[in-house]
Amino acid sequence: MTTGAMTKLTIRPALPHEIPALEAIITASARVLSQGYYTPAETEAAIAHVFGVDSELVADGTYLVAEAEDGIAGCGGWSKRATLFGGDRFAGRASGLLDPARDAAKIRAFFVAPHAARRGVGAALLKACEDAAAAAGFARTELMATLPGEPFYAAHGYVGGQPIDLDCGGVPVRFVPMAKTLTL
């Protein structure tokens, strides 16, 4: 694995026709980068029941891709909707709009292609999402971190809450709610 920042990275909104490619990146990222944090059964349960693209975010223009010279290196987004986490196949979604004056924007579905891990892709996506949320009037963000994502978010100023175990088709999978106050 190569380390160091990606030499050229473009952050842009995801396009509907890219959803299958993004789903493939999410699956590969989960399987490779979750090793040592989740068992294979936990990873597969999360892929089947929680992980994935939320097509509402794509339609809203708030789900982003990080594109490098060799293609999409990662994806992630922010949301002005009530759903905290989960792709289209997650049953616990809520489409209602948030009020920036009282609610926190949601940071959603961050996944980096295994070949691009630890090269600044996630950080570039996170900055773009936080900047966009702040521009939309949000003073706070919150997210539901995976165990491998928790140290990344903590390094970017997020504070973790009490971990939860989410039932993913009979397999409990641990996640950590996290939040951050944005600097406006």
Features:
184 residues; 5 helices; alpha+beta; 28% strand; 8 strands
Blueprint of the fold:
Blueprint: E1 10-13, H1 19-33, H2 40-49, H3 55-60, E2 63-68, E3 71-79, E4 105-112, H4 121-135, E5 140-145, H5 150-155, E6 159-160, E7 164-168, E8 171-181
Parallel strand pairs: 4-5
Antiparallel strand pairs: 1-2, 2-3, 3-4, 5-8, 6-8, 7-8
Helix pairs in contact: 1-2
**Proper CATH architecture:** 3-Layer(aba) Sandwich
General form: globular
Report mean pLDDT, rounded to a whole number.
92
* β-strand amount: 25-35%
Number of domains: 1
Largest sheet, strands/sense/barrel: 8 strands, mixed
Order of helices and strands: EHHHEEEHEHEEE
Structural class, from helix and strand content? alpha+beta
Oligomer: single chain
Q: Treating each run of at least 4 consecutive H or I residues as one helix, how many helices?
A: 5
Q: Considering the protein shown, what is the CATH homologous superfamily? A: Gcn5-related N-acetyltransferase (GNAT)
